[in-house]
Amino acid sequence: MSGATGGKTVKVAVTRKLPEPVEARLRDLFDAVFHESDDPLSPAALIERARDADVLAPTLGDRLDAAFFEAVGDRLKLVANFGAGVDHIDVAAANAHGVTVTNTPSVLAEDAADMAMALILAVPRRLVEGVRALEAGEFQGWSPTWMLGRRVRGKKLGIIGLGRVGEAIARRAKAFGLSIHYHNRSPINPHIEDELDATYWDSLDQMLARVDIVSVNCPHTPATFHLLSRRRLELLQPQAYVVNISRGEIVDEEALASMIEEGRLAGAGLDVYERGAPSEKLLKAPNVVLLPHMASATVESRIEMGERMIINIKMFSDGHKPPDRVILGLDDGRLPQAG
Ligand code: DGY
């Protein structure tokens, strides 16, 4: 790797404002170039920045497609993503141009699971609706029939993609008295399955027809785009809820919003959306709790994501294999099938 500033030989281009301790550590270790604003760089600015660097440290929203890797030249050797999901990066194109891609899995799993659990509780118990009613002056005192939601205990939770985050959700949900069901391409380690008392469903369709709450926890890939299609959403019982903290593209958002509006589904708790932000239709739908992609938004998670990213850069630039290399086709058998 080329370039030298004050003895720091590795040039790292960062694309977004990162937590201060993360930027400080990057500054200590590398010849780092930062982006002061919180706005994403334009595609042209991304290319310009990456052309002149050994390592690019992008994040969600920076689209690194085949054209990007074509345009970027030979210097770039590592894309060290700040974040677990890499659906904004064409990993095959990166690898074809000799660029390694890393991400930051694990460190955000517990915080993300807390937020999924919060949605699993908030939607059936009408938490946000209650807060809004109170703030609007509609609370006139306790009533035997007002604000009745649905009991969570005893319900069946169906997790699509029981990986790190899915498992952390399952542990929480079990403690709240939900029974755990999951669909993966193959069953998880039997010890963990026993511990969670989890039921494996080879067929996603069959699981959907039987559960009360669905939690989407698989990565977004071409194979999982609209995995929860209209046809699949129609398999759910009308009293079922959908929770998604993974990626919006996995659910047919238009179909979901229509079905909730028509009373064919009970509601949804979402942190992610097909087009980045929720559609008008979803915003107007009843029984939805919509969050602004904040499942991993804790100070601790974001700093640990930065630390993980730095470990990857350091290992790579010292000539070792970075621990969180994204390897195409390697998904622990957890990635559900499309269809
Ligand atoms: C990720 O890391 O991909 C998350 O979606 C950010 O919260």
Automatic annotation (TrEMBL):
The record's listing under InterPro entries reads: D-isomer_2-hydroxyacid_DH, D-isomer_2_OHA_DH_cat_dom, D-isomer_DH_CS1, D-isomer_DH_NAD-bd, NAD(P)-bd_dom_sf
Domain D-isomer specific 2-hydroxyacid dehydrogenase NAD-binding, which positions? 117-295
Report the Gene3D superfamilies cross-referenced here.
NAD(P)-binding Rossmann-like Domain (3.40.50.720)
Q: Which SUPFAM superfamilies match?
A: Formate/glycerate dehydrogenase catalytic domain-like, NAD(P)-binding Rossmann-fold domains
Q: Which Pfam families match?
A: 2-Hacid_dh, 2-Hacid_dh_C
Keyword NAD in the entry? The reply is yes
Instruction: List GO molecular-function terms, semicolon-separated.
Output: glyoxylate reductase (NADPH) activity; hydroxypyruvate reductase [NAD(P)H] activity; NAD binding
Instruction: Say yes or no: keyword Ribosomal protein present.
Output: no
Record keywords: NAD, Oxidoreductase
Every D-isomer specific 2-hydroxyacid dehydrogenase catalytic domain range? 12-326
Return the GO cellular component terms, semicolon-separated.
cytosol
Query: In terms of domain of life, where is this protein from?
Result: Bacteria
Fetch the CDD domains from UniProt: GDH
Name the family the entry cites. Belongs to the D-isomer specific 2-hydroxyacid dehydrogenase family.
Name of the protein this chain belongs to: D-glycerate dehydrogenase
Q: Which organism is it from?
A: Hyphococcus luteus
